[in-house]
Structures are given as C-alpha cells and as structure tokens.
Amino acid sequence: MSILVKQVSSMEKVRLNDNFDNLKVINSKRVFKGERFSYQITARSEETDSSYSAWLDSPLKDYIKIYTVKNSVMDFPTYVKWAEDDYISKEPGLMPDMLMPIEDSGNMIKIPRFYNISLWICVDVPENINPGNYDINIKLTDIERTFRTPKEYEDEPFTIAETMHIEIVDKVLPAPGIKVTQWFHTDCIASAHNVKIYSKKHSELIDKYIQAAVYIGINMILMPLISPPLDTAFKTSRPNVQ
C-alpha cells in the first residue's frame, strides 16, 4: 500500500483533489518565545482506503494540539463576473475549513484512496521556555495491519513518521499593536444551544465563546446594544437580548 505524506505550511489550502506533487514541503521553523505557529501534515493513499492512528512525541507535547481538517460546503464562492484572478476556485465545491480535535475521533484518521487529508498541528510556545532546538515527531500507525496478509504487505512500513525541527530564539514575541474584532451576538449563542437568554447556562456559554475568541487572536469584540432587525424573515422576530 502506498501512503504519501508531506509536512506543509499552514498557509496551504489543501483540497481533496489537489495535485500532491505541487505541495511544498517544510521541515523546519524558527519561532519566538510566546509565539503560536501551525503547520499541516498532509497524507494521501494511492491504492486503498486505510485507517491510521496519530501519535505525538515531542518535548513540546504539553503545548501542542492536533486537529483533523474537515471540509465545508462552498455553495457560492464569488460573483464570477467581478472576481479577481487570484481566487483558489470560483466553482462551488468543498474547501478545507473546520478544525476538529483529533481526540474526538479516538486519535484516528481515515486516509481515503486518491484524496488528500490533513492534520493541523498547533504549537503554543510558552514565554518561559529555554531557547534552543526542539523536534516535533508525528507518527501515523497502520491500525488495520493485523487484518492484512503479512506476506502481501511485508515491505510496507507499519508506522510513518514525520519530524518538524523547531528553533526557539531567545526573544519573547511582542504583543500585537492592532485590534482584531468580530461581531458577538449573544442571541445566536442562545438559539444555537437552545438555552434561556441570560440564564446561568447562557452566561457560561458566553464565557466559553469569549475564551474561544481570545484563543484565535480576537482581542476586541463588537457587541451590539440593540439587535438590529437584519436578516429576519417576514412575520418572524429575533430573540430579545437588549
């Protein structure tokens, strides 16, 4: 069985049908103390569907989170008539979007035949860490190997390993000097979770959403004092959270 694996930049938008050969490999990274950086491990099977378990081995493991990259449906990418030339795609389809904690799937990934899948590796470098060189080792172990004929697959690797070499420089990354903001609608939180507005559960959910916003780099939220009646269907109303 032929499994292809590459470490690629977090800036790559790896789609299911992208040419695997065109993906640029990265194997090292220089970062500051207090910096967050991410990269991807992309895999593709050339013969059959297969299942692998992912394992992390690194002195930085306490600061690393691994996600599986899931696709979202892109129904309407752009107005083609006015679109610029640098779009990834102007056609409807699937686009890598959601990051799901890999533990939600029991640390297992499914590598489908002739399609690309990706793991997202996110590292939060602490400010008090010793500078120097560190390795991040991700191992993909074939969990279906025991169900195959040993002779047929005797030349195939049981485990595929990829290593990212990290150099942490002796300088703390300064705080950004810009404000990053998004709308924050508490009525949407209540509706999505079907809870009573401003109940204890609602307040707990608001706290969690704000914490999530901070984690992804939002340092200012825009919360409307009065919910505008936008995008409200005729003869309906939005929840009152004034």
Instruction: Tell me the Rg in angstroms.
Output: 22 Å
How would you sum up the major sheet?
A: 5 strands, antiparallel
Summed up, the helix count is 2
Number of strands: 12
Terminal Cα span: 59 Å
Mean pLDDT across the residues is: 88
Largest beta sheet: strand ordering: 1-3-8-5-6
Q: Roughly what percent helix?
A: under 10%
Structural class: mainly beta
What are the secondary-structure elements, in order, as H or E?
A: EEEEEEEEEEEHHE
Portion in strands:
35-45%
In the predicted model, the low-confidence regions spanning at least 5 consecutive residues are: none
**Broad shape:** globular
SSE order and pairing:
Elements: E1 3-9, E2 28-33, E3 36-45, E4 50-57, E5 64-74, E6 93-101, E7 108-111, E8 116-124, E9 132-142, E10 159-172, E11 181-183, H1 186-193, H2 200-215, E12 220-222
Parallel strand pairs: 2-10, 11-12
Antiparallel strand pairs: 1-3, 3-8, 4-7, 4-9, 5-6, 5-8, 9-10
